[in-house]
From TrEMBL:
Phylogenetic placement of the source organism: Eukaryota, Fungi, Dikarya, Basidiomycota, Agaricomycotina
Alphabetical list of InterPro entries matching this protein: F-box-like_dom_sf, F-box_dom
Organism in which the protein naturally occurs: Lentinus tigrinus ALCF2SS1-6
F-box domain boundaries: 37-88
Protein name: F-box domain-containing protein
Length: 362
């Protein structure tokens, strides 16, 4: 009858071999997935053999127990914050989340997901991630999802090359923060019922109709809005007052952040192209109607780094645009127009935290 130590040694041998096999399999899969890092500290087979030859039965038993505990702990905490940075990564992530693996509490991987990020730059017509793919992923993980990033190019959500189909979101009861490209927002058919924070990127600067879309979808719950706009060479309509005028019936919006950038470096940044809103009195008349409770506006214009280039014009622009916002929206509006410092510092100075659930509830 074999001793307990020998049995443990055999168990250890099997555990280590299984661990090495799983490690090799994971590395093989990750080699084809651009967004997944290779595991650190991979154990070569020759090192494993040396361990098996030199360690005694008690050491191997402890190693097996430790490996099992680490496996259980890793499975417990994996898949809380997941991301895919390529189409291949998206399909691999979906496969991992649908695997029949549970943690100590009996939860599947999909049931553990709290934050999901899908983001890549280049459109792909050969194997796009379509609206139905995105809905399928959200249906899989939607139960506890509180944060979602969908920063994708337009062709990736198009089923018909001539028309972007509506993206019908499944119920996402815990989702309060959404970050998405303008193309995705334009495809949305509905909004998560409890969403309070929205961040939008890849927005052409003069697409003010987009804000009407935002108003129609998110008007009832939206409290905090952040927008990244891209300008080409014309900055004559850059004032955030125009955004306020384009937002219709956003009666819960208390915080608006606008981040502008120039597409062409070395060209005009808009410092010398003042937005003459006096030529359009309708903008002044409607700016306050759609955002009646707006309290804070943070703006980083495309010319935020041009202070050293022309300090006088820079200072005058800050004064002019601040006065425009006070006149059009509310004299009590807390306005921060970004200078040559980081946008995060402006949030700290205004006491704002972008997507905190506590801040959203205030």
């Amino acid at each position: 009858m074999p001793s307990l130590q020998v049995v443990n040694a055999k168990d250890c041998d099997e555990a280590i071999r299984e661990m090495l096999h799983a490690w090799a399999e994971q590395k093989r899969r990750n080699a084809t997935v651009a967004n997944t890092q290779t595991p650190l500290g991979s154990l070569p087979i020759d090192v494993a053999r040396k361990i098996l030859l030199q360690a005694d039965e008690n050491s191997l038993a402890r190693l097996a127990q430790t490996c099992q505990l680490l496996h259980n702990a890793a499975e417990e905490y994996r898949f809380q914050d997941v991301s895919a940075w390529s189409r291949q990564g998206f399909h691999s992530l979906y496969a991992a989340l649908t695997a029949e693996v549970t943690d100590g509490s009996g939860r599947t991987r999909a049931q553990r997901v709290q934050s999901l990020t899908l983001s890549w730059d280049d459109p792909c017509l050969d194997r796009p991630v379509t609206a139905s793919h995105i809905r399928g992923m959200l249906e899989l993980v939607g139960g506890q999802l509180s944060g979602l990033v969908l920063s994708l190019p337009a062709p990736d959500v198009v089923l018909d090359s001539r028309q972007s189909p509506p993206l019908d979101l499944p119920p996402l009861p815990c989702l309060y923060a959404l970050s998405a490209s303008a193309a995705i927002i334009s495809c949305l058919k509905n909004a998560p019922q409890n969403l309070t924070c929205l961040s939008v990127d890849r927005l052409p600067a003069n697409n003010f109709h987009f804000f009407t879309t935002v108003s129609n979808i998110f008007s009832h719950t939206l409290q905090r809005l952040r927008v990244h706009r891209s300008f080409n060479q014309h900055f004559s309509r850059q004032s955030p007052v125009r955004i306020c005028a384009s937002l219709i019936d956003c009666r819960a919006l208390v915080y608006l952040e606008v981040v502008d950038q120039a597409c062409y470096e070395g060209g005009s940044t808009g410092l010398d192209q003042l937005d003459g809103l006096l030529d359009n009195p309708l903008v002044f008349m409607t700016a306050a109607e759609g955002t009646p409770v707006l309290q804070t506006l943070v703006w980083r214009p495309a010319w935020f780094g041009a202070y050293a280039y022309d300090q006088q014009t820079y200072t005058q622009n800050v004064i002019t645009y601040t006065q425009q916002l006070h006149d059009a929206v509310d004299p009590r509006l807390k306005v921060t127009i970004e200078g040559p410092r980081d946008i995060t510092e402006a949030r700290i100075m205004t006491g704002e935290q972008w997507d905190s659930p506590t801040a959203s509830a205030q």
